């Protein structure tokens, strides 16, 4: 079983993903956490929808469920420090993460991180606790796009950037 877990982690580490910060603000407080689990669900429902998987022990997960709104901030390729800040690397607790990040409230009051390449502001649609993680589905109500579309990636346990491949002849 331990071998299966280790092979799962190694296998998934080979899936390069983009890096986002899920933020929330409201009666349950202001929280943010770095995630690689941001996934598009549908562009063709009543509104576009996306999902994020957040560990149940992260205070950000409980706050999103109570605030019922959140932003998915897709980080720009230059925002590695922001990813580390909201992952708690460097020892920052939740209390001062927002003091060290530029952000402004979106129309729903959810924190939009300055410089993010795309910010999806969402209302909570539904959530499912699957073992250790909340699978959180949001209906997107507004999107802020930056001038520079380059997104930060994470794969094989390191931050990366996307490169163009030469066209095959
Ligand atoms: C690149 C990267 C991707 C991550 N993706 C997720 C994720 O999808 N879901 C999650 O719960 N934690 C993820 N984490 C871990 C959290 O950012 C965080 O460190 C951990 O959940 C501790 O929770 P807290 O910072 O909210 O206390 C990721 C961390 C990094 C550096």
Structure description:
The protein is an alpha+beta fold. The chain has a single domain, classed as Electron Transport, Fmn-binding Protein, Chain A (Pnp Oxidase, Chain A, Roll), CATH 2.30.110. Helices cover 17% and strands 40% of the residues. It has 3 helices and 12 strands, in the order αβββββαβαββββββ. It has helices at 2-13, 59-67, 80-86; strands at 17-18, 20-24, 31-35, 39-42, 49-55, 69-74, 103-105, 111-113, 118-130, 133-145, 153-155, 158-160. Strands 3-2-6-9-10-5-4 form a 7-stranded antiparallel sheet, with helices on both faces. The chain is globular and about 50 Å long. The protein starts with a helix and ends in a 9-residue tail after the last strand. The model has no long low-confidence stretch (mean pLDDT 96). The chain binds flavin mononucleotide (FMN). Flavin mononucleotide binds at residues 19, 33-37, 53-55, 58-60, 83, 87-88, 154.
What are its keywords?
40% strand; three-stranded antiparallel beta sheet; alpha+beta; Pnp Oxidase, Chain A; seven-stranded antiparallel beta sheet; 169 residues; 12 strands
């Amino acid at each position: 079983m331990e071998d299966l877990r280790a092979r799962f982690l190694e296998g998934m580490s080979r899936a390069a993903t983009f890096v986002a910060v899920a933020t929330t603000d409201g009666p349950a407080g202001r929280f943010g956490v770095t995630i690689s689990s941001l996934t598009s669900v549908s562009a063709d429902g009543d509104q576009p929808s996306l999902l994020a998987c957040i560990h149940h022990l992260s205070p950000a997960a409980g706050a999103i469920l109570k605030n019922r709104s959140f932003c998915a901030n897709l980080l720009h390729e230059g925002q590695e420090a922001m990813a580390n800040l909201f992952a708690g690397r460097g020892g920052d607790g939740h209390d001062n993460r927002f003091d060290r990040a530029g952000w402004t409230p979106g129309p729903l009051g959810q924190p939009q991180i300055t410089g993010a390449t795309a910010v999806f502001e969402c209302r909570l649609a539904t959530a499912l606790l699957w073992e250790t993680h909340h699978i959180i589905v949001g209906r997107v109500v507004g999107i802020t796009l930056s001038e520079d579309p380059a997104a930060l990636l994470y794969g094989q346990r390191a931050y990366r950037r996307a490169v163009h491949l030469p066209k095959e002849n």
